[in-house]
């Protein structure tokens, strides 16, 4: 195994970092726009770098790269906390369309995702982390709601379907032009979750933007009242399996993004302590501050190693995500401390990094459940249970 990045991968990272340094404005300002992100910058990143289609096949207009290249891109967007549809569109919805969509659906949707003319969101009534099998088994379908009226229900209407219900927290749900909605069908005795395509202008749909903890990752509540929908793929598709595979890839992207955020937060802190003076000298020259920064650097580099390994082996995505979220939380907390009084103000970006750490752990964690699920799948607890049973 050659763990070194190729020249093309290094160039993708360098080019994207330069573009973001030159064109990305303050993250909070872009997040507060009606769309929740800078549409001009998104179009530029799509046109010049092919960012949303980076991991899509060339026959659909993509760059035919791998998850590793997309993870490197996420590391750079995480560094500046870039509000963008990248995660929801390219990290969650596009892989599901590739895995489950009919040939006509793939040919009709993926080229529009690749050229950034179509943004998407995954609407799940329950826990997104459980739907992606990051914090438990998703085969039971509890994440899509349950019973006769829980979650979102799908019913046949002629040759199509209608959906009724709501999803409380949908990433980029207020601005996405296409929603991929998880809904129950088959009635109460044979209920099973399927995925449906719903256009942004579908009748009976209401989208309400929420006040999110992390404003750089907008969320919305989606309400559907007999809204027309199209089934993604075929009726007998393995939805749970496709979501599980997509979840492994999404965990890799989120881990890389968290590493970028931690590195960006640490970089800002190092710059600040080098200029902030106390007792006639820069506070970065004090030994206690140096020790704290050195510890943070170790956290970031260890997390980066975990994220890069997961990009090579997505099966380790959940464990890498746990380590990277923990590193980001630690670094972001220390960033606020080392910035002193200004670290607590809304005008400074330090609080945005801390909120990203907290919000991502609420959406895709928590860390201990990510590790617990990974340990269960690896069978680490099986021998202990067997020994306990033998003693009884």
UniProtKB/TrEMBL annotation:
Q: Gene3D superfamilies this protein is in? A: Acyl-CoA dehydrogenase/oxidase, N-terminal domain, Butyryl-CoA Dehydrogenase, subunit A, domain 2, Butyryl-CoA Dehydrogenase, subunit A, domain 3
> From which domain of life does this come?
Bacteria
Cofactor dependence is on: FAD
Official protein name in the record: Acyl-CoA dehydrogenase
Annotated Acyl-CoA dehydrogenase/oxidase C-terminal domain ranges read 252-378
Q: Where is the Acyl-CoA dehydrogenase/oxidase N-terminal domain?
A: 6-115
Q: Which GO terms describe its molecular function?
A: acyl-CoA dehydrogenase activity; flavin adenine dinucleotide binding
Keyword Oxidoreductase recorded:
yes
Q: Does the keyword Flavoprotein apply?
A: yes
Which family does the similarity line name?
Answer: Belongs to the acyl-CoA dehydrogenase family.
UniProt keywords (A-Z) are: FAD, Flavoprotein, Oxidoreductase
For this protein, the record's SUPFAM superfamilies field holds: Acyl-CoA dehydrogenase C-terminal domain-like, Acyl-CoA dehydrogenase NM domain-like
User: Which InterPro entries does this chain map to?
Assistant: Acyl-CoA_Oxase/DH_mid-dom_sf, AcylCo_DH-like_C, AcylCo_DH/oxidase_C, AcylCoA_DH/ox_N, AcylCoA_DH/ox_N_sf, AcylCoA_DH/oxidase_NM_dom_sf
């Amino acid at each position: 195994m050659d763990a070194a990045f190729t020249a093309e991968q290094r160039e993708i990272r360098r080019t994207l970092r330069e573009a973001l340094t030159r064109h990305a404005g303050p993250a909070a300002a872009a997040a507060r726009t009606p769309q929740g992100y800078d549409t001009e910058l998104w179009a530029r990143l799509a046109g010049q770098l092919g960012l949303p289609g980076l991991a899509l096949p060339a026959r659909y207009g993509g760059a035919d790269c791998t998850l590793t290249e997309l993870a490197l891109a996420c590391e750079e967007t995480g560094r500046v906390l870039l509000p963008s549809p990248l995660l929801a569109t390219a990290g969650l919805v596009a892989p599901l369309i590739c895995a489950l969509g009919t040939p006509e659906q793939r040919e009709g949707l993926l080229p529009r995702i690749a050229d950034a003319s179509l943004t998407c969101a995954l609407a799940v009534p329950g826990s997104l982390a459980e739907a992606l099998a990051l914090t438990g088994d998703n085969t039971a379908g509890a994440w899509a709601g349950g019973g006769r009226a829980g979650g979102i229900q799908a019913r046949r209407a002629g040759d199509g379907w209608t959906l009724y219900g709501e999803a409380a927290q949908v990433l980029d749900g207020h601005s996405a032009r296409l929603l991929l909605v998880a809904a129950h069908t088959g009635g109460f005795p044979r209920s099973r979750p399927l995925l449906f395509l719903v256009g942004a202008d579908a009748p009976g749909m209401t989208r309400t933007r929420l006040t999110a903890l992390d404003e750089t990752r907008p969320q919305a509540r989606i309400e559907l009242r007999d809204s027309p929908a199209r089934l993604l793929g075929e009726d007998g598709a393995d939805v749970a399996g496709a979501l599980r595979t997509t979840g492994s890839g999404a965990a890799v992207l989120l881990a890389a993004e968290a590493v970028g955020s931690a590195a960006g937060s640490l970089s800002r802190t190092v710059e600040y302590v080098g200029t902030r003076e106390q007792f006639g000298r820069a506070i970065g020259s004090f030994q206690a501050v140096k020790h704290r920064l050195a510890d943070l650097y170790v956290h970031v580099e260890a997390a980066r190693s975990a994220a890069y390994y997961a990009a090579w082996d997505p099966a380790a995505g959940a464990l890498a995500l746990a380590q990277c979220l923990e590193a980001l939380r630690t670094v972001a907390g220390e960033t606020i401390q080392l910035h002193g009084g200004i670290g607590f103000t809304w005008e400074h970006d330090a609080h945005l990094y801390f909120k990203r750490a907290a919000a991502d752990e609420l959406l895709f964690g928590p860390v201990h459940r990510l590790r617990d699920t990974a340990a269960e799948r690896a069978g680490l607890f099986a021998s202990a249970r067997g020994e306990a049973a033998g003693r009884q």
